[in-house]
Amino acid sequence: MENKKHRILVVDDEQSILELLTYNLEKEGYEVKSASDGIKAVEVAKAFNPEVILLDIMMPNQDGVETCRQIKENKDLNNTFVIFLTARSEEYSEVAAFDVGADDYITKPIKPRALMSRINAYFRRELKGKKDQILSGDLLIDRSSYTVRLNGDEIILPKKEFELLHFLVKNPNEVFNRDELLKNIWGTDVYVLARTVDVHIRKIREKIGDSYITTVKGVGYKFSIE
Q: What is the CATH number of the domain that holds 218?
């Protein structure tokens, strides 16, 4: 089952809640670890590298807000999706949770079926988003948002430059001549000079460097992956 790939950490000082959530999550096919306080949660998170953390706010030793802050400050965990589970519904508690990087906030009593649906929906969105992303070395191309990141920094590309780069990245180490690139990027209904491809390639290289797109003399261009 695909969900078995996904790791979830459950953190709560009430054993009955840990057992309830662990049972339901494992039944859905998730890999689950648990912790009963914030200090232990940080330790387990570093070793387990969960994709989602269900985190209680009111706990002994270290509360959920401080725990979330420490997790989000860890570069290996700062993309972890944190859902607060709490009996406290006051606005200031919710604000404090989001201020330290929480992604969602659910008040107790917990309804397991509703929570499972929420988590399943999150992973479906994540999988869809990843299908729209291509990672090559330090270069991340996201088709859904038309963004390019190099070493984490966003690179601004006009639409045709983005589509040209995206097409080459989708077909690594395959050489395309100018006519093939014109047909795939500009289509056959618009008259565009072959030289346009060269200009766009040059502009892309100015922004992402020369190492990604290789010129094959007398033939065309390719996106190089070693």
A: 1.10.10.10
Three-state DSSP state, 146: coil
**Do 85 and 123 have their domain in common?**
yes
Contacts of residue 221, Cβ cutoff 8 Å, sequence gap at least 6? 168, 175, 176, 181, 197, 201, 213, 214, 215
Bridge partners, 150 (sequence order)? 139, 153
**In which domain, by residue range, is 13 found?**
2-131
Looking at the DSSP bridge assignments, the partners of residue 98 are none
Report in angstroms the alpha-carbon separations of 150 from 96, 154, 224.
32, 6, 16
Question: pTM of the full predicted structure?
Answer: 0.58
Domain identity same for 56 and 7: yes
Looking at the predicted structure, is the pLDDT value of residue 91 above 60? no
Phi, psi angle pair for 134, to nearest 5°: -125, 125
CA distances from 160 to 17, 51, 146 (A): 52, 34, 11
Q: Are residues 119 and 148 in the same domain?
A: no
**What is the C-alpha separation between 48 and 9, in angstroms, rounded?**
8
Handedness of CA 24, 37, 87, 49 (dihedral sign): negative
Reply yes or no on whether the pLDDT at 25 is more than 80.
yes
Task: Tell me the three state secondary structure of residue 43.
Answer: helix
